[in-house]
Amino acid sequence: MTAVVSASRAETIEFQGRKAQRADSRERRRAILEATLRIVVRDGIRGVRHRAIAKEANVPLAATTYYFKDIQELVSDAFNLFAQDALKQTEQLEETGFAVLEKLKGANLADPQIFEVLSTALTNAVVSHVKSQIEDRDKRVVEHSFKTEALRNPALALTACIPQANITNSLMNFFKALGSKDAETDAHIVHGVILYVEYLLLLDQGILSLEQAQKAIRRMITQLLALAVKR
């Protein structure tokens, strides 16, 4: 059983606006992008306007048009900044999964007791990830806002696919390490369930409780593990 650890993926995200060379210029550019994200949380994508951003970032109006040729480019780079930071959480989940496998290295994963340990550890890791995601509600609002906008904006859709592909790739690497015969499909199943569970928990309308979410995640993981390790 060999762990397949993916390389850092931050370099796959390419910013479109004017590059900043000096430290103070980089700080101003980032301040503009962070202000954009705050506006998205408060007012949605439609609230993103040059004047609103300049006021929120406390910068001259000319600064927003200096770094970004139009609103579309600014929105795209704001999402790039968000996605770049989000990659760290993806890497943490991946590292946790491989750490579990490392502890069981050489063990017979099909053994009922070992299988139970693995299933429980992975369930706890995914549930912990989900909890951390929904606790940062503003970031999830940003994420869903950009996903919705990407349905109307082909350029933004390309950007939106990068963090999604990175998460699926991380999960696929994990299932390959387990010996899954269809690691890509397994990865899509896990990713889909995580997104669905997060969304319902964020709505907080009683459709899904955290306890029910944990049961669903455990069942999914147990069944996929059974396919991967029980020949």
UniProtKB/TrEMBL annotation:
<protein>
    <submittedName>
        <fullName>TetR/AcrR family transcriptional regulator</fullName>
    </submittedName>
</protein>
<dbReference type="InterPro" id="IPR009057">
    <property type="entry name" value="Homeodomain-like_sf"/>
</dbReference>
<feature type="DNA-binding region" description="H-T-H motif">
    <location>
        <begin position="49"/>
        <end position="68"/>
    </location>
</feature>
<feature type="domain" description="HTH tetR-type">
    <location>
        <begin position="26"/>
        <end position="86"/>
    </location>
</feature>
<keyword id="KW-0238">DNA-binding</keyword>
<dbReference type="InterPro" id="IPR001647">
    <property type="entry name" value="HTH_TetR"/>
</dbReference>
